[in-house]
């Protein structure tokens, strides 16, 4: 093995099979929408988390799980409601009107308590007639 090669732990973090003492705070990293789909009227927002695994696990009992688990809440354009996603996959939004939009992405624990959040603002272009 190359002495300079990164280990699996270096890349993937701690094993999800071992409890972590004094877990670091959860982090949410959100990229701007991908430009190619945006130009076609579709919004693809990639994100990742640190110190929290996005999984479909809910309820008070899941607060004791280590390493920490949670999910995201997604609010579009200050809507009075949000939707929940626990897939860990790219957020895809379709059907938005051309113009400026804001998406609030919140990282939440299994009881829906928000741990941290990021906001993405973007302009959806008008589609040209083909």
Q: Could you describe the 3D structure shown?
A:
This protein has helices spanning 8-12, 35-39, and strands at 27-30, 43-45, 47-50, 53-54, 69-76, 83-85, 91-93, 99-108, 114-124. 14% of the residues are buried. The strands form three sheets. Strands 4, 5, 6, 8 and 9 form a five-stranded mixed sheet that branches. Strands 1-3 form a two-stranded antiparallel ribbon. It has two helices and nine strands, in the order αβαββββββββ. With 130 residues, the protein is mainly beta.
Structural class: mainly beta
Average residue pLDDT: 91
What does the overall shape look like? globular
Report the helical percentage: under 10%
- Nearest-angstrom radius of gyration? 18 Å
Q: What is the count of helical runs?
A: 2
Order of helices and strands: HEHEEEEEEEE
Low-confidence residue ranges: none
Largest sheet: 5 strands, mixed
Ends distance: 54 Å
What is the β-strand count? 9
- Strand fraction equals 35-45%
């Amino acid at each position: 093995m190359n002495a300079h090669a990164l280990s699996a732990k270096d890349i993937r973090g701690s094993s999800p099979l071992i409890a972590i003492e004094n877990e670091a705070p959860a982090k949410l990293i959100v990229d701007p929408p991908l430009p190619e789909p945006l130009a076609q009227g579709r919004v693809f927002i990639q994100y990742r988390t640190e110190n929290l695994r996005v999984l479909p696990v809910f309820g008070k009992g899941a607060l004791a799980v280590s390493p920490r688990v949670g999910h995201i809440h997604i609010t579009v354009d200050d809507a009075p409601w949000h939707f929940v996603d626990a897939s860990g996959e790219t957020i895809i939004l379709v059907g938005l009107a051309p113009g400026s939009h804001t998406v609030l992405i919140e990282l939440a624990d299994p009881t829906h308590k928000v741990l941290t959040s990021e906001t993405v603002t973007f302009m959806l272009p008008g589609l040209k007639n083909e």
